[in-house]
Amino acid sequence: MLKRSDTISVLVLGEIIAIFLIFILKNLGYFSNLLWLTLIILPLLALLAFFIAYFIGKKILVILQLAKFVIVGLANTAVDFGILNLLMLSANVVSGGLYSVFKGISFCAAVVHSYFWNKHWTFQKKQNKETGKEFLQFFVVSLIGLAINVSIASLIVNYISVPGTISAKIWANIGAAGGSIGGLAWNFLGYKFIVFKK
């Protein structure tokens, strides 16, 4: 049976995704009065997906851990994109040097979120005497992830021309998505095999 702590964690992460999705959609001009429904629907969809992964994970153990990482990763991405879009909306900036600063800020917020959830829920690393060393390793892996993430996002946004049918705001989010994919791949490997290895 699914643990209560897992159920609560998935629902909280689904809620985090929904809240930050509102900022993203508002910046992109897709805000509507029905958007509050995402606060109900996304947590339930996350729970359904995790429930399916739980049953598959009974036969293939790494699936459950990977499902946790993906849900945390989606929430991290929502935090990253949500803060980025909130900053872009507030400053009316979608490219240039300030975009790169905003992307760095949003990524750092997502890293703090990531550390908490990955340490305590995904990889379930117990407290140890080497917490300082562990955090340093997490910081270094995340710093490399930051470089990958911001570099890819900035490269796409600042050096590839916006296709004619796509708005600059959507292109800024496409750049952020490219950065997130690169950073996500690096972070999973680094967290699993360097920081939270058992």
Structural commentary:
By secondary structure, the protein is mainly α. Helix content is 80%, strand content 0%. It is globular.
The helical percent reads over 70%
Give me the number of helical elements. Answer: 6
Q: Return the average pLDDT rounded to an integer.
A: 88
Using only CA atoms, what is the Rg? 17 Å
Q: Give the N-to-C terminal Cα separation.
A: 25 Å
* Low-confidence segments: none
Order of secondary-structure elements: HHHHHH
Classify the secondary structure makeup into a structural class.
mainly alpha
Number of strands: 0
List the helices and strands and how they pair.
Elements: H1 4-28, H2 38-57, H3 61-91, H4 97-122, H5 131-159, H6 168-195
Helix pairs in contact: 1-2, 1-3, 2-3, 3-4, 3-6, 4-5, 5-6
Key traits:
80% helix, 198 residues, globular, 6 helices, mainly alpha
Short description:
With 198 residues, the protein is an all-alpha fold.
